[in-house]
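Weekly modeling sync, notes
Attendees: S.R. (lead), two postdocs, one rotation student

Agenda item 3: backlog of single-chain predictions. S.R. asked that every request posted to the team notebook include the full sequence so nobody has to chase files. The rotation student volunteered to paste the first one in as an example of the format we agreed on. Action items at the bottom.

Example entry:
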Amino acid sequence: MRKRTGVLLGLLGAVAGLVAGLPLSWVAAPLPDIGARYSGTWWNGQASSVPLLGQVSVDGGLTDVGLATPPGDVTMMARLGPRSLSDLALAMPIDRLPTSDARLAGLAGQFSLRIDSARYSSAGCESAEGTASTNVLAVNGARFSWEGPVLSGPVDCLDGRLRVQLSGEDGGTTVRSVTTTGMDGLYQTDTTVTTADPAAGNALVLFGFTRSGAREFTLSEQGRWQ
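Predicted structure, as returned to the notebook:
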């Protein structure tokens, strides 16, 4: 009996040791190859060379995992579960957005995204609560000879896709922009600007907007995150 007990305790100790030292690279093996390198364990590990984010610390748990980047241009922290996302805080310079849009190169300003909670499945986004904001129109006056409003608004889900609704008003100019994106990496952005400011109209046309009324300009774009 003592022998069996000893064997059992030994097996339990071996399993506990394996779990405690579970390599992060083992856990990440089934994930899509994004060129990242993994070190440490699931409970206390690091992922490096992660696209856009660089280095990400990993704090694994039994039901979810905490992710965080060190201070830098692009910062992110979140908790990720099998079908949930919570406490996401993402901030980056506007010219670091992962698109191939050359018009963003050299633009000043920040974009921030907070998602308090979200649920998703293989069908896509089921629910989300959060906010987003950007000051890109307010801090590039020297480049465009026009300053627009700071934009902010809610984040939710629509037809299985994450939806970010931004709006702002300043000096008689109103901006409304809606972006939807999904797990396929595709995005759609529809923006409407209403203004009587000639400087704003000139800047918007140069940026690709189409005049759709006496005071209204619109822009619709689709693409894939890089």
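Discussion: group reviewed the output briefly. The first strand starts at residue 37 and ends at 40.
Action items: rotation student to repeat for the remaining queue; S.R. to check formatting next week.
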